Automatic annotation (TrEMBL):
Signal peptide limits: 1-30
A single MF term (Gene Ontology): peptide transmembrane transporter activity
Lineage: Bacteria, Pseudomonadati, Pseudomonadota, Alphaproteobacteria, Hyphomicrobiales
Name the UniProt record assigns to this protein: ABC transporter substrate-binding protein
GO BP term, pick one: peptide transport
One of the Pfam families matching this protein, by short name: SBP_bac_5
Family, per entry: Belongs to the bacterial solute-binding protein 5 family.
Domain (Solute-binding protein family): residue spans on this chain: 77-444
Keywords of this entry: Plasmid, Signal, Transport
Amino acid sequence: MKAYSKTSRIAALALGTGMALLMSSAAAFSADDKVSIAVNTMQIFSSLDPAKVTDYTGYMAIVNMYDGLTTVSPSGEIVPHLAKSWDISSDGLSYTFHLRNDVKFQDGTPVKASDLVWSVQRLLGINKGPSNLIVGLIKPENVAAPDDVTFSVKLDRQFSPFMSITPLFMALNQKLIEGNTQAEDKWGEAYVGEHSAGSGPYKLASYNRSADMVIARNADYFRGWTRGKPIDEVRFVQTSDDATVKALAEKGELGLSSHGLGNDTYEAIGKMPGYKLIQTRTAGGFVIKLNTKVAPTDDVHVRRAIAYATDYKTIQDVIYPGTDMTGPLSTAFKDAHNDGVEPGVFDLEKAKDELAKSKYAGQNITLVNSYVASLAFEAEVALLMQANLEQIGITLDIKPEPWNRIVELSSKPETTPASTQVNISPSYPSPDSMFYNQYHSRASGTWMSMEWLQNPEIDALIDKARGETDISAQTAIYKEMQAKLAELQPDVWAVSPNRRYGASKCLKGYEFIPMQSWDLNFSNFHWDCKAN
């Protein structure tokens, strides 16, 4: 009864916040002069800084407020953006980018190559978020601007996925940020954390980290606004409460939902007048990460037992609709995928056999399972796992946590839960993103790497693939790695979910892009109610 009352209070508070934000949204939908939409997010915007982002809301913020050196097409191809073209040296170490000369920051200052140099040096200096991709690969002094429209980078070693990470080389306004630094804050982290300092299609209008964020259209955006009637304002409403999101839709005030709601909620929204369901594939998956450094998941046989005790079909057909995952790499990366890796099998007898082989056999085993509090489908998965694991002699201790707490816990192996439910997707369009961010020792200490695998053989294979420029040889390494990871079972690869959004029928232009949150760049959307 207490849990119900608490949930009701949270829902009422979130609904009140949403309503206060969105009082004029319905009128804005029909107004000819301005389109303002409400977009639901599952979690807070923990960072707005391109040098610090790690999760889907952070990437959604930066793709809307900043511009990268390149960007990503729906097919996963790296295409020009700030850079019109580029040259790569024959040894694969030197990259020269030729920039557009018509881009301005949101304060009217021209974007110059020197801003990109400073931004990359800032990324290296802060040494958080995406920096682990280039620390040890690029020295600050090897990033240069020979002139205002030429940006060059020299790598310390060959790194075959380099072009795939260039969308994350975001241009920040050096002059603006340096004018707002403090002695103890060389890189202006406090300022960038609460302001937009880019040239992107939207600029920050208001920000309340614990509840909501509003971004407003940059009318002078260099790409222009030619894709129909643009979205002038996006009001993000943070709640994982399905009832709150449905209430917004019932009032006609929801533009786009998050992708982590319950099945019934999507079905209900899809049937409402003026609404539709957007359903697309993903390039990642929903996994249960198993901490290989703490009991009892430090034993591979326990990890395999948990995998066998997972009812994949119930998860895929009922709780979180989707298809089989076959190891750590999505079939979206068709050429690099190892088709010989089999999907998980639900078999309690095999689970018991594996548990009997472990060093914990015959003991009372308790397994902590953490997930994002208030995500209904993750709570259902936890209860399903609890019932199945009980049958093989494992007690599941369910511990829902706020997302920021999960991020905090993941920083050390001893605080990372033995098992944690997460959605994982590529933060850049390369198989390397799925391997390096999760399994390489150098990437340990983030929510993406809660396995704490730190396996020298896997590290060596990842490094070998990163240095291999022959595609067929690199593909062979990727396939070998997938087979070895399947044997090590650092995760339960539960489902490749169908990405779903509840959306207003007037919201047009959605396209799936195989890079985290790049599909939620609202400059690619437009508003058209005439066709409905």
